User: Fold this.
Amino acid sequence: MTLKQFKTIKLIFVVLIAVVTSQSIVLENYVLPIIVLAVSFPVLLYLRKRVKEVVADERDYITGGRSAMFAIQVYSCLAVIIMIVLYAKKDLNPSYEPIAATLAYSTCVLMLLYSLIFHYYDKFKMANKKVFYIVFIVIIVIIISIFSLRLLSGEDDWLCKNGEWVKHGNPSFPVPAIECK
Amino acid sequence: MQINYMVNKIKELRTKLNITQEELAGKAKVRRETIVFLEQGKYNPSLKLAHDVARALRTTIDKLFIFED
Assistant:
């Protein structure tokens, strides 16, 4: 496979994921984009291995590292500013608070991931990619598990009982606007 | 000793050997754009890449990259 063919296929995958994700939001089916992502990731990895030309070299990795660091800094700064503003204005609209909390937590997760990966590259052998992928997958699984447990635990949430939204615990967001069936 | 300036003879040797940037990139296992940046002096290669390029051009690192004080 040539590099051009691989780039074309990658672009098609990106478009496909974007279409599936947008349609899933419209149809309220959130499992479909996860399946598409889970399938496309190994497929792209497999196709990348079949490319005979050089896909990325040391200059790309250096540029990528610098770009990633700059992107993290920009995102963190913006997220913190927006979070403070949203928290300050939460009385105007109650939905500002969960958005601010999401921004705060996502920034913390991003910083934590960056620190862990940086520590790994700084202390351990960089050529051992297998260990890196295992550590990366473990971290992702832990994060997803924590979020899933929090979301599926039913604590601090609005529960649908007999056609009415019932407060369970102390949810940080207002009663859902959608009909309780 | 502090190195203030570095020049290289990549383009000169490549032309002498009559090989294209694409071919040199293939031999050094990098993208063609990296060879362009190296020739223009916009990128300082790693020791490994410097070695690979020098080998592809049938020369040594010290003859390919000239450091000026």
Observations:
- The longest strand of chain B covers residues 5-8.
- Residues 12 and 51 of chain B are 17 Å apart (CA to CA).
- Strands of chain B lie at 5-8, 65-68.
- The two ends of chain B are 8 Å apart (CA to CA).
